[in-house]
Amino acid sequence: MKAIAAFISVFLFGFTAFGQYDPEKVNKKAAALYEKAMARAQEDDFKGGIKLLEEAVKIDPGFADGFLSIAGMFGEQKAYDSAIFYYQKAKNIDSIYFKDYNLPFSINIAGKGDFEKAIGAITDFLSIPNLNEKSIKAGEFRKRSYQFGIDYPKGKNLEQYLFKPINMGDSINSAVSEYYPTLTLDSKEFIFTRRVKNFNEDFYGSKLLPDGKWSKAQPLEGNINTALNEGAQNISQDGQWLIFTGCNLPDGLGSCDLYISYQTNEGWSTPENLGYIVNTEFWESAPSLSPDKRDLYFASRRPGGYGGSDIYICHRLPNGRFSEPENLGSTINTSGDESCPFIHADNQTLYYTSNGHLGYGGDDLFFSKKGPKGSWSSPTNLGYPINTIENEGSLVIAADGKTAYYASDRSDSHGNLDLYTFELRSDIRPSRTLWIKGKVYDKKTGKGLPSAVELTELSGKEISSKVQTDENGNYLITLPIGKDYAFNVNRKGYLFYSANFPMSQKSPDSTYNVDIPLQPIELNASIVLKNIFFDSKMFELKTESTTELDNVVQLLKDNPTLKIEISGHTDNIGKADDNLQLSEKRAQSVVKYLALKGIAPERLSSKGYGATLPVAPNTTEEGRSQNRRTELKILSR
């Protein structure tokens, strides 16, 4: 029975000591109404139960159990103000009898965010003599949670933050439950799960209209929705993949598995099980793809974890399949349950739910930051009122880093769970990003080329992202602001592409275009090696040149019959003879490096041209910079 009147038998040891209230002396008519109200509560008809109880306490204003049960039913509906009001009524009748109810009283007070008062109530509860072990454990757990609520704001400037979730309206929400939102990088396509006919879960989608409103949500086109349950989905940032959870499907390996569907001209393709490497006979759910689609985060109850449900990661292999899952470790996972991972477009900030880290009492939302070596920072609780004493669910955040979406059953819900949006507090936002889009294409024909685009931070020289283009060579990716990047593309039959792009001063939340032409491997084809570096007037290779040089080595190993010329070029500053000698020595330094890496000397030649072959005017520093270059030319195939 859900009514609070049953609370004593569940949590307390022994009988309550009466003060002025005696349950045996309750008016019989009021008692009869109470029994009818309890029957309503058994059917989850709390509104009907409250109405009957309100009649009962009118008949007998000293009916403490009547007030307590009204409070309990309001508490079940999260109507904390009303619950507290009626608990207080019961306490005024008999404070001794009420002591047993200080636990649910404290929970409703904490539900309003008044953790100081909640501590007082739970302390009164724990002072009751002869409490059983279960009651003590429940009380002490709540006391720790309330103390966390008191301590969390200390040292934080939270006064200016107004948590005001906005219902996404009847274009998105309906009389049934909507939950698990996900959206594309440009925030123009919104997909969510809707519970249809109270048992079947299907995917619905909506488009952002020119006026800033959402179109009427419709079932996703294609073969993705079935009469069975599909839910807990995540759309890739480019809108091409949808990975989701399917439970008890015919081809399932366990209770719930991860599936993938692809966007096609006919809509979403028939889902494919991700297979036994990702899925097990146990429970896998709540997928989240990294913005470059290289990493897949998800929750699983497989053996070998730290608790009931842990968060894992798989990496996409060169063959397109995902690697064996890796547990994210004890910084993220606990002996409790972690779930609902969401990796933001910055590819660094992971949001997820946990009941194992200290919080407000249920499943709270946390975030952790991924460091340069892949380690995770200690989890940060998102704080009240984003987190409450209830269980929080999935949260997704748009690429702008501040617009958040989540499901809730707030007072203005259209029915059950609705989807809401709110602005995330500044101190718990992910890194701001900028968006890069472009096309990889054949330099001669202009035809798009499906390719992998690697992006490397110039400061760290580590690959920070690797994105696969679509079949037409188009790509879209987000990058954290404040950094400069090298773009690299290797494709069979073409000279590799490598270029630096200074993005550190670019504006966040903006889109930049980087098209990438690939030069086919053919006689006399040439490319500029843009990441070969020398100090001024010197010919010794700088260590920053290693990545580019190794790309040349790989090109020659992949094409064992190629013969190339490495040429050096300078601007026109200084004496022509000096420039010629410098360019020759620089070209020779590159050839020497390649030979040391195992390339046969007869396949390599070098030549210095000094300032005789400029590619830009030498009248500006920008032009002179372009003329100071190292080139690779195909001599024979």
Characteristics of this structure?
Immunoglobulin-like, 33 strands, five-stranded antiparallel β-sheet, 637 residues, alpha+beta, 23% helix, four-stranded antiparallel β-sheet
Concise synopsis of the structure shown:
This protein is of the alpha+beta class and 637 residues long.
Q: What can you tell me about this protein's structure?
A:
With 637 residues, the chain is of the alpha+beta class. It folds into four domains: 4-151, Tetratricopeptide repeat domain (Serine Threonine Protein Phosphatase 5, Tetratricopeptide repeat, Alpha Horseshoe), CATH 1.25.40.10; 167-428, Neuraminidase (6 Propeller), CATH 2.120.10.30; 432-520, Carboxypeptidase-like, regulatory domain (Immunoglobulin-like, Sandwich), CATH 2.60.40.1120; 522-637, OmpA-like domain (60s Ribosomal Protein L30, Chain: A, 2-Layer Sandwich), CATH 3.30.1330.60. The chain has twelve helices and 33 strands. The strands form eight sheets. Strands 6, 7, 8, 9 and 10 form a five-stranded antiparallel sheet that branches. A four-stranded antiparallel sheet has the order 1-21-20-19, with no helix packed on it. The protein has a four-stranded antiparallel sheet with strand order 2-3-4-5, with no helix packed on it. Helix 4 (64-76) packs antiparallel against helix 5 (80-93) and helix 7 packs antiparallel against helix 8. The longest helix is centred in the C-terminal third of the chain and has 21 residues, at 576-596. It is elongated. The protein starts with 6 loop residues before the first helix and ends with a strand. Residues 1-18 have low confidence and may be disordered.
